[in-house]
Amino acid sequence: MKGNYVGQPELRIDARDKVTGDAPYPGDFTMKGQLFMKLRFAGRPHARVVAVDATAALDVPGVVAIFTSRDVPVNEYGLQYPDQPVLCGPGSAKEGTDVARFVGDQVAAVVAETEEAAEIARDLIEIAYEDLPVVSDPREALKPGAPRLHPPYPGLDIHPELVFDGNICSRHRIRRGDVEAVWNEAAVILESTYEIPGQEHIFLQPEAGFGYIDDEGRITIVTSTQWAHEDQHEIAHALDIPPEQVRVILPAIGGAFGGKEDMSVQIVLALAVWKLQRPVKIVWSRRESILGHHKRHRVFARARWAADAEGRLLAAETEVIADAGAYTYTTNKVLGNLVLTVNGPYRIPNIKTDVLGVYTNNIPGGAFRGFGAPQGNFIVESQMNKLAEALEIDPLEIRLRNLIRDGEPLPWGKPLPDSAVGLRDTLIAVGEALGWQETGAGWRAPEITPEPGDPPYLQRGKGIALGFKNVGFSFGYQENAWAGIELRGDTEIEEALVFAASSDVGQGTRTAIRQMAAEALDVPIERVCVAPADTTLTGSSGSCSASRMTFMIGNAIRGAAAEALVKWNNEERPAKADYTYLAPQTTQIDTETGYGHPNFSYGYVAVGADIAIDTELGIVHTRRLVCANDVGQAINPRLLEGQIEGGVVQALGWATTEHFIEKDGIPLTDTMSTYLIPTISDIPDEVKAIIIENPEPNGPWGARGMAEMPFIAVAAALHHAVRNTVGHWTNRFPFTSERILRTLKGK
Question: Distance from CA of residue 350 to its chain's centroid?
Fold first, then answer.
């Protein structure tokens, strides 16, 4: 059968292997003569590494080598800016690489014949530290006289938002109109402060890697990553060797969510393989994973918003301080998304927004599903719900009165690249699913009444929130993705081999690739084979992040398929073609006004929450979460439903059970017995996934990215529902039973 594969619920191509356990993860690879690696973390939030003595560790039977900062040719790395040492310690040319700035900084790498020997030796390494002042609150880090955590680095022209001013890592702002001129005109002014927590990724598979020298003499790293070609670049830079001498292979990944976008084990693993010319394996424990990789940014915010008596927004003044942690990671880009989403998709004539990323000695903040939009969304949607309450206007109705229309500029001075209809469609779909009705006076929420059998201590409530986020890389980067296709056969296409470096981090990208290739080539899907992701076989597809992969790789596949078919029809056998798709150009936003054209596409989402709270115990029971997503075109509806359900539950965990706590730079929730993710008893009784399809003009077959969207508005919808249940706004979360009880008692 040919054609009609886009839009069908095709079975995942990796389903059987994952169910049976045959799928190869990095920790599953073995090779004759392999060694094992363990890392010694600093264990201190801020200290100068004065000396590293490995004498006793080297005497452990089976220990082969111990690597320190002196062994790294270029002792720096960083996805946005190279401000982090590969190994902290003396002996590097770059200033500041002898300082450990958070507990998960790596100081030494031990390689041994057995994992047990590596562990024993790791703990015998003697490290002399000079403890330095710890800065753990970004607000304190901004005060005059606060210890400066990094030497002054030069900024980069391509990242003007990186400022390195004292402990300020990045700065974003928006200025529109004059907020001071309209406060006196407002019917209501709503001022709130918010504290938004960090979050640990808790992917099922901790960081792991296997390295060896391949038949061509290349350092080969098999690892879980969201961007194989970026790993190749970072490794080559640190080892000071050409990128073509590094090969990165991407096997199965046990989850990522942004947590495997930055480096973890890759560089030190490659260093050991390069120095020893032997295979080496490393697998982090759960505690190492929690200590060693970045988290969702913790945020402190103050918002002052004004509206007239009809609920029309007049002004929005918002200040955000985000905890960047010890290093830049992707803070500048995460907070770029936050500044774009913190005013929502609404018409606001007067805006003053300031967003700062601030260095501390906490675990770095970095990429996590939603990439700044969930934090921005919690602020704006909480403000909208509070304004609706203050003005006695329905919360759905007040949003509809303020939603931007086609062609109207957003806070950065440009309209949405396509229609804004998806915003309205998702909002109304969720409202109707939760019982909202349109009346002659506008939309009205359903009345909440006790249900038969409800005990007196059980209270019920509903909440709603609307969100949007960019698709693809932003702010002037020329977004691109490469794909290749090889058609084999004599008189007909018997096999179509698709080459793409796209990471499949659990969302089913490789299945979607197969469907899109079959559709573009008009061949039976059984004849399409997706080759492994390997930097020696493919060009770069970019990172599996920013809800970009289906959009970008789908367009690249269409281009490669068209060129391959031309060659096939000219009787070229096999017919080989590759294509690099370049997305529509974007621009940076002005550092003073925030004006620019930062994104080429957006996704739209609305979420409704129906909850019940036990007011004696403070327990929040989520009866129902409704999530409507405008996906443009569903390539595989079954996979989309899985994305929606997974995103909603992950966001529910952030909002209700997950409480990542650091005190003076020391994580207190560094195990899964102290950091609690939702169990089967915590998830909603029902997750209703609503798929809306308003085609994206530039998307492949009209598809727009959606993987992050289900997460974005959940916390804000729950905040609204909690208010409607217990009668109080909390302004901080997670909504644990302790916090609910304190709220009920006015504390």
Answer: 30
SS3 543: coil
- Report the side by side order of strands in the sheet with 313-325: 162-165, 168-176, 350-359, 313-325, 299-307, 188-196
How far is 230 from 225, CA to CA, in rounded Å? 9
Please check the confidence at residue 140 and state whether its pLDDT lies above 70: yes
Dihedral class, residue 506 (left if φ above 0, else alpha if ψ from -120 to 50, else beta): left
One domain, residues 571 and 609? no
Mean pLDDT (the chain) is: 96
- Mean pLDDT of the region 414-440: 97
Q: What is the CATH number of the domain that holds 400?
A: 3.30.365.10
Q: Answer whether 577's CB lies under 8 Å from 564's CB.
A: yes
From 582, 615, 645, give the residue that closes a domain: 582
451 shares a domain with 598: yes
Same domain, 572 and 598: no
Tokens of 190: 């709503």
- First vs last Cα of the chain: how many Å apart? 65
Number of domains in the chain: 3
Domain that residue 576 falls in = 480-582
User: For the segment 521-558, what is each residue's pLDDT rounded down to a tens digit?
Assistant: 999 999 999 999 999 999 999 999 999 999 999 999 99
Of 536, 551, 582, the one marking the end of a domain is 582
- Distance, CA of 78 to CA of 366 (rounded, Å): 11
CB-based contacts of 95: which residues, under 8 Å, 6+ apart? Answer: 151
Q: To 10 degrees, what angle do helices 266-276 and 228-239 make?
A: 50
Specify whether 92 is located in the same domain as 212.
yes
At residue 610, φ and ψ (nearest 5 deg) are -120, 110
pLDDT class for 3, splitting at 50, 70, 90? low
